[in-house]
Amino acid sequence: MKKRLNLILPLLLVAFILYGCKSNINDKDVLENPITDNSIEENTSNSNTEDSSFSEYEAYEKYREYISPKSKTEIQLDDESEKLYSDFMEGNAAAEYSQDGDTTGLFDLSGVLEEGKSYTLYEIIDKVNDGLSDSYEWYYDNCISEKYIDLGLDGSYELKTDIGAAEFTLTLIVKNVDNKLKICFAGESVGHSYTDVMYTGEVYMYSYGDYDSESAEHGYIDKDGNYIFWYYYSIDGYNIHSDEDLVYNDCYIGSGIGMIKQEYYIDKALSDSYCNIRIKDIDNNYLAENDIKAKDAYNNMTKILKEEGKLVVTEEEIKKVLEEQRVAIGFSDVLYHYGDELKPKEN
Question: At what angle do helices 9-19 and 40-67 cross, to 10 degrees?
């Protein structure tokens, strides 16, 4: 199973969407740090690094644009779909709600909408407002976006709309099914949790607790509009950048070391996990299992996790399991590797 930019890409995807990126080069730097004979070599080195970083950013932006949902002007909708989607965006057509593709939490569509019943866009907004407390100011004028994706890459397009403010956004995927609209996926971005739907229907849902903690669900929406779960993972850091004792569930693991614990689930019930641990030194460098500083820690943690009923595996074994699961759920190479020819190379 490939990792998109070493599992850092998911964070970059969200960061670039929400916050953008600024170049490190500006006029103020030049004025306050003039080039002198003694600083030519240093400035040349810095310039090369900055140019390289900017080039990588440009390459990533090109890749990101290619795999992202498109505007209406970038695609060719059939007349029927264009009319239906336009009417829905204007509040003149209703889409059927189903819990099957509903992943919302705070917005809780399943609590305010009825299974199998159809709603206009503004009826959905009103229902959500009724279900939220007054402290959540999420909906404003002109806060509804209109983009399009291509489930299955079959040339029949689906509407992606994001509704709400930056910290509270409801995402809907609406599909034309036999001249009737269906809400085939609903997600949300709330606080430190984000939902990202790509052009092919690939779905990432992330949640970040703090610097050393994150979790995510990864799946895709198939050509028929069904959301299909692929896997869920959680990553937790312990004692990172600390010289104190590493303790896990009241058990001493080692001194002057940190640990990253990763758990992957391929069943939506999250009943059985594949667990992997990595030991780090105080400088945040990974230590091999046979390293004298980490050997006992690996052995202690493996024993504890096995006693908890966890299946402890290597990262390569996790990759293999996830790749096999991707194939099993029908997430094809064509969809999963879409745009890879533009993806920046890993360092």
Answer: 90
Would you state the pLDDT for residue 7?
39
CA distances for 49 relative to 32, 45, 46, angstroms: 19, 6, 5
Q: How many residues does the chain have?
A: 347
pLDDT exceeds cutoff 60 at 22: no
- Kindly give, in sequence order, each residue whose CB lies less than 8 Å from that of residue 49, ignoring residues fewer than 6 positions away: none
Average pLDDT over residues 279-301: 94
Class of residue 224 by CB neighbours under 10 A (exposed 0-12, middle 13-18, buried 19+): exposed
Q: How far apart are CA 205 and CA 323, in angstroms?
A: 19
Contact 112, 130 (CB under 8 A): yes
Using DSSP's 3-state secondary structure scheme, residue 323 falls into helix
Find the helix or strand (DSSP H, E) in which 326 lies. helix 315-328
> In whole angstroms, how far apart are CA 346 and each of 6, 56, 340?
8, 10, 12
Surface-to-core class of residue 293, CB atoms within 10 Å of its CB (0-12 exposed, 13-18 middle, 19+ buried): middle
pLDDT tens across 112-123, in order? 999 999 999 999
Q: How far apart (Å, rounded) are the C-alpha atoms in residues 108 and 275?
A: 31
Supply the pLDDT for residue 19. Answer: 33
Does pLDDT of 32 surpass 60? no
Q: Is 210 exposed, middle or buried (0-12, 13-18, 19+ CB in 10 A)?
A: exposed
Q: Where are the domains of the chain?
A: 9-67, 70-201
CA angle 205, 210, 215 (to 5 degrees): 30
* Contact between 162 and 169 (Cβ < 8 Å): yes
